[in-house]
Amino acid sequence: MAKLDQNELLFERAQKTIPGGVNSPVRAFRQVGGTPRFVTRAKGPYFWDAEDKRYIDLIMSWGPMIAGHANPEVVAAVQRAAETSFSYGAPTEGEIELAERICALMPSVEQVRMVSSGTEATMSALRLARGYTGRDLIIKFEGCYHGHADSLLVKAGSGLLTFADSTQNAPSSGGVPQDLVKHTLVLPYNDIAAIEAVFKKQGDHIAAVILEPFAGNMNLIKPSTEFLSTIRNLTSKHGSVLIYDEVMTGFRVALGGAQSLQGITPDLTCLGKVMGGGMPMAAFGGKKEIMSKLAPLGSVYQAGTLSGNPVAVAAGLKTLEIISREGFYECLTGQTEKLMHGLKQAADKANIPFAVDSVGGMFGFYFANEVPTSFEAVTKTDIEAFKKFFHLMLGEGVYLAPSAYEAGFTSIAHDNAVVDTIVTAAEKSFKSL
């Protein structure tokens, strides 16, 4: 009698009490098919599933584990913090230290408010932008995912590209009123003419433009320099707030985030993932003039019982200390580029149309002849080839994002031996496509 797979048993059990068996949709493997892996432990660049099979992890908790899973220094910091209690509902010195560190690393952030999730950060930043400008309209871009707040679930990326029918300016999710999303204008990523036309027509009614400075929720898509400078110039001219959603890219692509690489100074920045070291922690911050509109100083209300949680703060502070060390990003970037070069070479050898891209410790690969630059281009890549490749790599012990619409992530623990193992697995997988 064949032994029952523990992942399958857990998934079957989970579906009885958890919708879809998961607590975040992309984990369900709906795009790629098959059974999700239930993780029992992780260390460095690896995790082990319920069958005790080891995988090289290339999502790293969707970005935060930049120092590797269960980094001993971060674990020790968390243990020390946990011994003094998990939460107080009152201010701590650690919150000040983390805020000071963020402001020092990102000069555009003069003040910062801590929250518990990326969705909370972007939702609050938009409310603040509307309160500051007295306007209602916001602009977002196709395929960019900014969390699951109602106003942002319009042509959104991430799991919504798998689960939703994202027709133009229709909600990407059930339960979102059309009357609400009428205040959200959706434009193509990297389309300069489109944003110029909208600002010419409605510029004085636009409260904010929010964008992923490197899109990571329709796979990795980079903006053009002209696209970014046009947005910055138009928002400044019309008094609109430019919001950089760096929940994914903040401290992931560079120590100063995407804005430090692009030379753009946003008005507000949203952070998460790396800043919490894997703990539920996020933040939004920016110009003091705008941040002063927040309660208790101003009329824009935002609050959270677990905001600035001391255990999460400890994980974040130690992680930011680690990534600030000399040579960290040079090593991380070099290893990620080496991985992409190896995958590209393996695909070329097998005559598979394949393109790659990366920035810092974030990467994308596409079953296409060239790197896409828009949501539309991503949807035209060979998704069926990706699905087959995903399962072939999974069989070789490499865990990729279970969706062609998600970027991938490395960590400082992905050394040469790990990269070589991934490339060898890819060579075998490409031959079987």
Tell me what the structure shows.
This protein has 433 residues and is α/β, with parallel strands linked by helices. It has two domains: 6-70 and 327-432, Alpha-Beta Complex (Aspartate Aminotransferase, domain 1), CATH 3.90.1150; 72-323, Aspartate Aminotransferase, domain 2 (3-Layer(aba) Sandwich). The protein is built from 15 helices and 14 strands. It has helices spanning 6-17, 72-82, 93-105, 118-133, 160-163, 178-181, 192-202, 225-238, 257-262, 288-291, 310-323, 328-349, 375-379, 383-395, 416-432; strands spanning 39-43, 46-49, 54-57, 111-115, 137-141, 184-187, 206-211, 241-246, 268-271, 282-286, 355-359, 362-366, 398-399, 408-409. The strands form three sheets. The protein has a seven-stranded mixed β-sheet with strand order 4-10-9-8-7-5-6, with helices on both faces. Strands 1-2-3-13 form a four-stranded mixed β-sheet. A three-stranded antiparallel β-sheet has the order 11-12-14, with helices on one face. A hairpin with a 2-residue loop joins strand 1 (39-43) and strand 2 (46-49). Helix 7 runs parallel beside helix 8 (225-238) and helix 12 (328-349) packs parallel to helix 15. The two termini are 31 Å apart.
